[in-house]
Amino acid sequence: MSILNINNVHTYYGNIHALKGLTITVEKGEIVTLIGGNGAGKTTTLRTICGLLQPREGDVFFNGENLNKYKAHEVVYKGISMVPEGRGIFTRLTITENLEMGAYSRNNAEEIKEDMERVFTLFPRLKERRNQVAGTLSGGEQQMLATGRALMTRPTVLLMDEPSMGLAPVLVELIFDTIGQINKQGVTILLVEQNAHMALSVAHRGYVLQTGEIVLSDTAEKLKNDPTVQKAYLGIE
Amino acid sequence: MKKENFIWSSIKVGLLAGAIGIFLSLVGMVEVFNKRDVVEKVISLGMFLLLAISMIAGFIASRRTSDLLGGNQAGSNLLAGTLAGLFTGITLALFVLASDQLNLRAIFLNATPTLSGLLTFGRGSGGLWMLPVLGAGTGLAGGAFLLLPLLVRRPITHAIMVIIFSALFSSLFRVIMVNQGGGIEKAAKAIFSQTGLTINGALVFIFGTLFISILWSSQGAKVQNRVDRLPAKGKLSLRVFSILLIAYVAIMLPQAAGPFIAQVIVIISLYILMGLGLNIEIGFAGLLDLGFVAFYAIGAYTVGLLTSYGEYGLQHVSFWVAVPIAVLISMMFGGILGVPVLGVRGDYLAIATLGFGEIVRLLAGSDFMAPYLGGPRGIIGIQKPCIGTLGEFIAVDIPRVCNGIELSKPQDIYYVAIASALLIAFFSWRLRESRLGRAWMAIREDEDVAEALGIKLVQAKLLAYMLGAAFAGLGGAIFATLVGSIFATSMQLIVSINVVALIIVGGMGSIPGVVVGALALIGLPELLREVSEFRFLLYGMALIAVMLAKPEGLWPSQTISRELHHDEAADATS
After folding, report:
1. Which of A165, B79, B88, B517 would give a disulfide with B18, using CB separation of 3.0 to 4.6 Å?
2. Model confidence, pTM
3. Looking at the domain assignment, is residue A116 inside a domain?
4. How far apart are CA B335 and CA B354, in angstroms?
């Protein structure tokens, strides 16, 4: 049984039909990427999975359980965590406080401490600046913090929305490196990206989204060599 | 770049100061303040205000000159100060001339003959020359002040501040000291006159402050050092001693100070209660609420209905039973307000809550509710709390007999109010550090992210409304017993605005900030009756001054001050 199963989902913004019968499956331990242009419905898919949007039709199954009946704050307790687009960190709080907020859904102080150390080993830069106000961090550091905060919920599935947005190429590589590392620690990742090249090099499988519909799905390797993908998203003629 | 000529810059400062002087005269401040003295028979508060303006103008002009010339140059500095002061005086003199020739009173109610008499020192147009001369003199003094070394400047600043402070509060100190009788009473009469300080008193304060200030600047570091070196035990006992001292003063104060001051402190405590309540909504959870007075009204009316022996009293339970009920009912209404406005954010939330506040006030005073709430006649005959036998703790007969101690005077209610404020402050502080406090903080920063982290938005927001309302309800309940009657007309929008203003001045989300804000915005106008006429002018000035000079508030919470001082925070960690 796949860990995440999105089955024929239709999501609307008022009258706008944003997702038109989307079907995606994610197996345990995988990195799956959704690529597509602006307005394809990538972020909408993530917001639908974590309960910030309700699908009008279709279901989202997590470990075989239908998530539709849960609100966003309840989905967190199931083990799904999101790194929102534009990071959404608490700019006025320190790094440590941001990470503590990430562990809001948990009670065990010992485990929380352990996980914070884990985040700090993953991102040594954050450890150096643990008492600094998050608003003063650089874009890359803020992305690390947002990722770290999402890990603090101890998720089984991590949803990442455009982690490369607005970052320098060096930092993009660093972030994608850590995505690989997080995955090796056993976290399943659903990655939404415009930077198709980077996304396909780290992911196992990928889906191509166009105006709310899946137009292609295959292993990352095959998608990289697909002529339409190359032309539309990788800039190879 | 061509630098501005310092003479022209000083004249500009002087003209501006003159305009400020004219403004303060026209709003009537100078005339009203003139009824009070700083030092009896020497200088009145009104005159002091004008002289202070030209002195400050002289000081500012002198400082600008130093900036323009790249350093202090005694001659230019003094010239700049004199010029600024002179032009302040000339502007004011021209204003007096104009108000003599033209009939300004048709438009400016306060341009009275008394005012122009005041500004010419009672000599009519023959005294016009005095303003520029005095202005130039004080301007010169202000300009010279900058040139003094810090060691001299600081004691003088302290002395001036102590004089202003003790003169403003002279009636307060006088009452307290006269109440003690004996030698203290004599001392009070020697130092304080009816309207301000006596000459002797002023001298005592000036030389006392100068002495202490000089002593501190030479010995202060040593004392500080010795306190730092104290063993942990010694520090603890020092702390315990100071806490005991404060507690002793707090307990003895109402007996010493009399009913008026006790009542002022009760009112400050009530605003602290409301401030702490609204602080949960605005400061912690970021939910702006402009109808906060509604909960205060609900608390007051509940106590009124439950305890009044007038015609609208439904039950006759004791104060001690009525208060928890009032708190619960306010809390319930907090929830009721919370549900419909949950989906509303930002500015719209402010408007929705504003409407709620007005609805409650209008309903309470309406004919429709008059059979239950008394309408414009209000609810009268609210019982005072009674500490007596167990039976009296619960219900009371009519007419009311209290066999124990009846807390009837403001001096007695004082203890109830102070105890409640302390309790709620403690509660508020624990709340902020709690899990719920964290949830509120996250909501304030970003609602969507908060929800994505597992925070129940609906629950957290409703709790913010309910707890805030509960605190305000407690304030209202105490208010009802203090006054003994309640009228819908005392539940005006302005109460809500006062509470918002005191939170902003004190520092959003900060608990000591609420106390400081309440003291500054509620306590000062209550104590200085001359000032209370200009309450809103001063509110505006205080708000603008705080926003410019200390945007995080007078006693900010850690988070907010960190945000506004990013660079320093970054420097400190790197």
Report:
1. B88
2. 0.81
3. yes
4. 16
